[in-house]
Design brief:
Layout lengths: L2 H5 L3 H12 L5 H7 L5 H5 L2 E2 L7 E2 L16 H34 L20 H10 L8 H17 L13 H10 L6 H11 L8 H31 L5 E5 L9 E6 L3 H10 L3 H9 L5 E6 H11 L3 E3 L4 H6 L5 E4 L8 H6 L4 E4 L10 E2 L7 H15 L15 E5 L3 H9 L7 H9 L4 E5 L11 H12 L2 E5 L1 H9 L7 H5 L2 H10 L4 E3 L6 H14 L11 E5 L5 H12 L3 E4 L10 H15 L3 E3 L3 H18 L9
Parallel strand pairs: 4-5, 4-7, 5-6, 7-8, 8-9, 11-12, 11-14, 12-13, 14-15, 15-16
Antiparallel strand pairs: 1-2, 3-10
Helix pairs in contact: 5-7, 5-9, 5-10, 5-24, 6-7, 6-10, 9-10, 10-23, 10-24, 11-13, 11-16, 19-20, 19-26
The structure holds FE(4)-NI(1)-S(5) CLUSTER with Oxygen (BF8).
């Protein structure tokens, strides 16, 4: 295997990497090399920088120091480090949710944050039906105008963040048995911000020294993300931007078009990317682009914000996390506009080697010296139009000799939601999960797996996602995907209905052919992992597959994870009773045997879910299948039909 083939299995990525090497552009893989050897204490999670008596570290071989200056041992240090990551990951998703709820309040003309501010904005309520459903969940009378409903709802949603007592409203969506368990364990999330703050408090010097107790607080904080901040983000985005429905699209670097003004949007909050979709179609700007010699304006996305506009508009996806620098390396990107999360600091340097203009838009995420065009719901269209104009004008600066776009693009179908799954399986007027449950009960389907998460240059790019998913569908496991994992599988054609015939087992094939779905369902961005939680609750409500989420023959996996957000997702999966495998490296807990044993073992007796660390995709598939079979047996289901 050549050096480049070890980095990625994706031919477009390989080609762009070759170009980067020829042009002496340093990418994440080069930087990983210069970091070798990476800090062993950090990798094991036993380096403590919590207070200024340190930094302290625990000798993993048991010969040197076994506790820090304050007396904290490996268990406390590793658990505190991990807890902090859970808090950070949760805060990222939940802050995103807050911004979306704030936009809803602006639409309703009742900004809770900016009293007296003019109420002009560029959004509207696209999905009134979902607005009403959500309002009813929050106990709001819906016999009033949609603006009035939105006003009340946004107030209640924003109050979820600052709630001090009681429980988050969406907790009610979980099956009764799960809610009772959370209550018994004392991990029912009370308020979103409260759980993050309290978890951080417990990790400061001299507070919680019990690793199991720290993990319980971590589980509660993660639940406030999955069943709180992320769920708010997903549901309110559906109200403001419309609920996705199955839609076709294209993926990979080949979607960047040589004769067009190319704008790549990268980040997470779809308020920006959604407006970019509109601004890129502005007749005035399209005319200007043509005047500049381009055929038009081409918009493409990277990472989760790409998933958002793919799900709602079929906008092309240029790539996943490890392709962000390479999109610029094509030499054909006029502007990369970014908002928050997963945006590599290196982009500034890579962009400087080409004519590409990097533009930041969010006050929370800036680069020194990089052009910042402030974006807010109030000036959304204006500011996005300004960015598109910068791109169009920058077309003239493109250096033709530097352009080389790998000609790879793949078709895909995305846009599955808990509602869409209902409708596809049961028909629009008989929307039900019954056919899905029956398929599992009868053994035509073995079970379900959520395969999600990032890329990580420590692992061959896309290899773990695609190999695992192929193994799962071959064994009649229907795969639900989000984030960069979905993009990885899309590039290999796994998100096409035709993929069932080529890759799926007979049972899954029959289902896919009967209803015309791919064997791998793309549910959206990382906040949309909340769709998996609600879909699982519907499965329990439908009946026949147990009484709790932990009874479902299902598992979760983040094969190439790298982000703190992935850790938080893992924790809310486990807190919801899901067996969850992490690839790449474990969460730097290995320096504490007790903590690792707890997370991969004993915790199952607590929440019904547990973690597994595994770095072989074939083994991951075997573990998931064994777990699904164990759950099938516990439910006394018929044997798998085509085993
Ligand atoms: O939130 S999968 S690399 S883009 S963290 Fe980031 Fe990971 Fe991609 Fe989206 Ni999720």
């Amino acid at each position: 295997m050549s050096n480049i083939e070890q980095k990625s299995i994706d031919p477009a990525t390989q080609e762009a990497l070759k170009k980067a090497q020829e042009e002496n552009i340093k990418t994440t893989w080069d930087r990983l090399e210069t970091q070798q050897p990476q800090c062993g204490f950090g990798q094991l999670g036993v380096c403590c920088t919590v207070c200024a008596m340190g930094p302290c570290r625990i000798d993993p071989f048991g010969e040197g120091a076994q506790c820090g200056v304050c007396g904290a041992n490996a268990d406390t240090i590793a658990a505190r480090n991990l807890a902090r990551k859970i808090a950070v990951g949760g805060s990222a998703h939940s802050d995103h949710g807050r911004d979306v709820a704030h936009t809803l309040s602006l639409i309703a003309g009742s900004s809770a944050h900016e009293k007296g501010a003019p109420h002009h904005h560029n959004y509207e309520i696209v999905n009134e039906e979902k607005l009403k459903v959500l309002a009813q969940e929050f106990g709001i009378d819906i016999n009033k105008t949609k603006e009035e409903i939105a006003k009340e709802l946004s107030k209640k949603l924003l109050a979820e963040f600052g709630k001090q007592e009681g429980e988050l409203e969406f907790v009610k969506r979980a099956p009764k048995k799960r809610r009772e368990l959370w209550k018994k364990l004392g991990i029912t999330p009370r308020g979103i911000d409260r759980e993050v703050v309290e978890l951080l408090h417990t990790t400061t010097m001299g507070v919680d020294n019990d690793y199991k107790n720290l993990m319980l607080a971590g589980l509660r904080c993660a639940l406030s993300d999955g069943w709180g901040g992320s769920m708010i983000a997903t549901d309110v985005q559906d109200i403001i931007l419309g609920s996705p429905e199955p839609i076709r699209g294209k993926v990979n670097l080949g979607v960047i078009k040589e004769n067009y003004v190319n704008i790549v949007v990268h980040g997470h909050e779809p308020m920006l990317s959604e407006m970019a979709v509109k601004a890129a179609q502005d007749p005035e700007l399209v005319k200007l682009a043509k005047k500049m010699g381009a055929e038009g304006i081409n918009l493409a996305g990277i990472c989760c914000t790409a998933n958002e506009i793919l799900m709602r508009h079929g906008i092309a996806v240029a790539g996943n996390f490890l392709q962000q620098e390479l999109a610029i390396v094509t030499g054909a990107v006029e502007v990369m506009m970014v908002d928050v999360q997963c945006i590599m600091p290196a982009l500034q340097e890579v962009a400087a080697c080409y004519h590409t203009k990097l533009i930041t838009t969010n006050p929370k995420a800036r680069f020194p010296g990089v052009n910042h065009i402030a974006f807010s719901p109030e000036n959304a269209y204006e500011s996005t139009k300004e960015i598109v104009k910068v791109a169009v004008e920058n077309f003239a600066n493109r250096k033709k000799e530097k352009v080389n776009i790998p000609q790879y693009e793949m078709d895909l179908v995305a846009g599955f939601t808990k509602e869409a799954v209902f409708q596809i399986l049961g028909g629009k007027y008989r929307a039900t999960y019954k056919p899905l449950n029956e398929a599992i009960i009868s053994g035509r389907l073995r079970g379900l797996a959520g395969v999600v998460g990032c890329n990580n240059p420590k692992q061959t790019h896309d290899y773990f996602h695609t190999t695992l998913v192929k193994e799962l569908i071959k064994n009649d496991v229907l795969v639900l995907q989000t984030g960069c994992s979905a993009i990885a599988c899309a590039k290999q054609g796994l998100l096409l209905p035709e993929a069932a015939k080529q890759f799926a087992g007979k049972g899954l094939q029959e289902i896919c052919e009967a209803v015309g779905i791919p064997p791998v369902l793309h549910l959206g961005s990382c906040v949309d992992n909340s769709r998996i939680l609600t879909a699982a609750s519907h499965i329990i409500a439908e009946g026949g597959l147990g009484e709790d989420l932990s009874d479902i023959p299902a598992a979760g996996c983040a094969p190439e994870w790298m982000s703190e957000k992935a850790i938080t997702i893992g924790f809310y999966f486990v807190a919801s009773g899901v067996y969850t495998i992490f690839g790449a490296s474990p969460f730097a807990t290995l320096g504490s045997k007790n903590l690792t044993d707890y997370l991969t073992g004993e915790i199952e007796q607590v929440t019904g879910g547990r973690f597994e660390f595994c770095d072989d995709p074939f083994k991951m598939a075997k573990l998931i299948i064994a777990h699904i079979d164990k759950k099938r047996e516990a439910l006394k289901l018929k044997p798998v039909m085509y085993a």
